Structure formats: C-alpha cells, structure tokens
Amino acid sequence: MGTISVSTGRRVGAVASIFLGLAALSALGPASAQPLSGPAAPGPINPSADQAAQMRRALDNAHLHGFAPGAFTPRGTDNPALVAATLRYAKAVRSGRLPESAFRSDWGLRPAAFDPAPGLAAAVANNRVQAWLNSLPPPYTGYQALQKGLVQYREIQATGGFTPLPEMDLKPGAVGPMVELLRARLAQEDKAAPLSVAMVPAGAPVGSAAVPIYNQELSEAVQRAQRRFGQQPTGVFTAGLRTQLNVPVQRRLDQILANMERWRWLPSSLPEHRIQVNIAAAVLTVFVGDEATMSMRAVTGKPGSETPMLRSSIHSIVLNPPWNVPAGIARNELYPKGRGYLAANGFRILPGGGLQQAPGPGSALGLIKFDFQNPYAVYLHDTPSKGRFASYSRLASHGCVRLEKPMALARHVLANDPYWTPEQIEATIAGGKTTRATVQQPVEVFLLYWTSWVTADGGVNFRADPYGWDTLLMQRLGQVA
Predict the structure, then answer these.
(1) Taking 90 as the threshold, does the pLDDT of residue 129 lie above it?
(2) Dihedral angle over CA of 437, 442, 448, 452, nearest 10
(3) What is the pLDDT of residues 177-198, one digit of tens each?
C-alpha cells in the first residue's frame, strides 16, 4: 500500500509515514509559484527574441513532462505559430490533455478550466515568460518525482527493457545461475540491489569456485521489490513477484504517464488539513498543517463497483448509522437470502420496498459513518468485518470506503468541537441512538487513484491497475489530436 501526499502553498511538505511494513511515500515539497494571470490581451502576443527562445526551449523539453517528442512543434516559423504552440503546451501541462467529454462519469476529480492566453500575454508584457512557464506544471513533489521515474524507465527501455524471469523456485539459501538472474533483474530498478551475490558456499573445499547464493542482501532486495508492488515483504521470491517483475517496461511507462496526467487534475493548491484516500492502494492518510499525521488501511471498491475519484468535504458524522441498502445490492444479494436471514441480521423492509438495516455493531456500516456531498452516494464508514484489513488485497467494497480506525478518524475530525469530546462520542455510541454530529469546520476529502508513485528512497512504486483506468486513460489520450 502507499500514500500519496500533495503540498500546498510554498512551504516544504511532509512525507507520508511507513505503515504496517509497507514503504513510505514522499510526495510533498516546495510548491512552485502559481500561474501568472492577467487581463486578456488586447491584440496579438508578440514575444521578444529572448522570450521566444524561452518558449522554444520549453516546447523542446516537453518530453520531460511525458509528452511525445515534437508534440508541440510550432506549425510555422513565425511568432503567431510559436505562441499557438506555447498555448497548447501550457494547457496540456497545466490541466491535462483529456477533454471533458472523455472523462468517465466516476472520474469526478476534474481539472479547473484554464485559459493560458491571458497569463502568457501578461508574462510577455512584464518580461516574466520563464517564470510563467515554470509555474505551469503541477507544483507538487509527487509529480516531480514521477518525472525522474519517467527518465529512469525510459533509460531502461532504451537499453532493451527488463530481463524476463522464467518460472523458478527460489528462496533464501538457494544456489545457482537463477539466483544471479534474479539479482540482475532486481538491479534494473533497485539501485541498492547487491552488485554481486557470488561467494564460496560455507563448508566447501578450499579452492572451490564462488557461486551465486540467495543471501541476506538479496533477500532484502526482494523485500524492497515486494513493498514497491504492494506485496507482503517476505523476502522469498514468489510467483506473484515474478509476475510484477515481468510486466513490460512500456506498461510501467504508461502507468507513470497516466498518473502524471491525473496529477494535473488536482487544484493548484490544497488545504493543509485534509483527508486523502488512495483508492488503488486502499489507504487513507490524514494531513494537518500539510504533515501526514494519521494513516490507516482501507477497503475500497472492487472492480465493477469502483470507488469514484472525487473532491468533497466531510460535513457530518453519523453515530450508530442505519444502512439504507442500495436497491441493486438488496435485489441481487440480500432478498435472495430470504426473510429469515433479513430478520436475523436486523433488516426491515421499508414502505415502498426499500431495505434498511438497523444500527448496531453488526450493521454493515459499523458504528460510524462520515458523510460528504457527492453524486455517487459513497462515504467513509466503519465495518464489523475487520479481517480484510490484514490482507494486502483490499478492493472488496461496493464503492464506499471502509476504515480500519474509524473511531480515531472521528475523534480527529471532531477534535475542535467542545461538545464532541472522545468521551461524548463513545457515550453516544454506547447509547445506541442514531445521532448526527455536525462538523463545525468541514474537512476536505480527496478520493484519488494512484497506481505509481515514488517513495523517499527514490524507488518507483507500482500497483495493479484494478479498475483498468490507467489503460483507459492512455487509450483516450492516444485519441487526442
């Protein structure tokens, strides 16, 4: 699992914490200046020779932001052609290339409208073109770190790609050429992987040749790889790790590019106090003062019941919530179990045919529900089913986000309310009555889909694309002229 954080303002942000043996993620950093703005230009934009050179240099370096070489080559040699190309580049690097019509309905996190022309006109008039160009990309270290990852994986591709690994049964202590093959493959992505694991086996006769041995150093390199892919870090080479190591480098590049595009959908600044959920990794992180102060495992939507990307604010917390069962779940999963099952589990049929489960520790929503406005009817909530949190595969809900530590989150969100002390929260829950606690200072929540990010040690992390959204995004970007 992994947490992605994004910084706000111009201060240095924090690094998300290491949680339950999985790698921490550093994605905060100094924010760039906000895009310069100004009134609409009264006429053509006429950059000077120096300004034009700065614009051409930005277009020549567009590949550093994941764009194809030549994507913004001016369609002519005069200033109007250069200005037009610069405006195309500015819009793409600032708010992405995907048109509004190409967003899925559950990609609810959309970039703000951005017209680069007034900003470029002001930059030319004030001789601040370079500053304006620098202000365009997402001002977050998470994005900048993926730029470095993009360079790394392009270099791997240029040298022939990853060395494929055959099926092999390896564990610490193993000896032979397959061990060296594994070491070499790990070293393609992990700069800390051992340069050699060749040694003379213990007890071998004097003069015996060194052979590759699956030693402690290699086991630690395997653990790092397992963490980067969101697997249990056992240090034992498994079929699951082999599958991830054999993913083609082009696929990894596509994941990096898809995530860079999604960074452009974020606002240019974020509240320092916020809650973020990485849907793909199933992790929730709380930020206060732009520092990661709390992290917990989550259960997010299974494929087919996807948790949407969105931005909203938690406005209230329901203690002892009843569960108003969505019609599809009631029809397909609960009604077929019969009235006996429904009665035994606290369900009642409402007038009009709806189904509701009474509040209580056995309710599907547990004891706490966090409400925020959104068109998808999703929310954060407790659950009586705790076993899934121990798994490294936690995409299992119908779209809502189940929380490992809902009480801790409730105490945090209500911390500034003198009435809703931790004791009052617990007493209200113990009383069993459904109660809505209004959040006096609503906390913004972001549901994000990150499948690639860079940790503090420079390792590029990847997760499976459980919803196929990386693939779909790259396909749709490929259709953009």
Answers:
(1) yes
(2) -110
(3) 999 999 999 999 999 999 988 7
Neighbours of 213 (CB within 10 A): 21
Give the 3-state secondary structure of the chain. Answer: CCCCCCCCCCCCCCECCCECCECCCECCCCCCCCCCCCCCCCCCCCCCHHHHHHHHHHHHCHHHHCCCCCCCCCCCCCHHHHHHHHHHHHHHHHHCCCCHHHCCCCECCCCCCCCHHHHHHHHHHCCCHHHHHHCCCCCCHHHHHHHHHHHHHHHHHHCCCCCCCCCCCCCCCCECHHHHHHHHHHHCCCCCCCCCCEECCCCCCCCCCCEEECCHHHHHHHHHHHHHCCCCCCCCCCHHHHHHHCCCHHHHHHHHHHHHHHHCCCCCCCCCCEEEEECCCCEEEEEECCEEEEEEEEEEECCCCCCCEEEEEEEEEEECCCEEECHHHHHHHHHHHCHHHHHHCCEEECCCCCEEECCCCCCCCCCEEEEECCCCCCCEECCCCCHHHHCCCCEEECCCEEECCHHHHHHHHCCCCCCCCHHHHHHHHHHCCCEEEEEEEEEEEEEECCCEEECCCCCEEECCCCCCHHHHHHHHHHCCC
Q: What is the pTM of this model?
A: 0.88
- Answer yes or no: is pLDDT of 16 > 50: no
Question: What is the pLDDT, as a whole number, of residue 291?
Answer: 85
Which residues, listed in sequence order, are joined to residue 394 by a DSSP beta bridge? none
Q: List where CATH 2.40.440.10 sits in the chain.
A: 271-453
Residue 481: both structure tokens together: 């002229």
pLDDT at position 17, please? 33
Measured CA angle at 344 (ends 338, 347), to 5 deg:
75
Q: Where does the chain hold its CATH 1.10.101.10 domain(s)?
A: 162-247
CATH number, span 162-247: 1.10.101.10
Model confidence at 340, pLDDT cuts 50, 70, 90, reads: very high
Structure tokens at 175: 């000896």
Instruction: Note the pLDDT of residue 289.
Output: 84
Residue type, position 177, single letter: P
Cα–Cα distance between 200 and 125 in angstroms, integer? Answer: 71
CATH dotted code for 271-453: 2.40.440.10
Lowest mean pLDDT among 20-29, 107-116, 336-345: 20-29
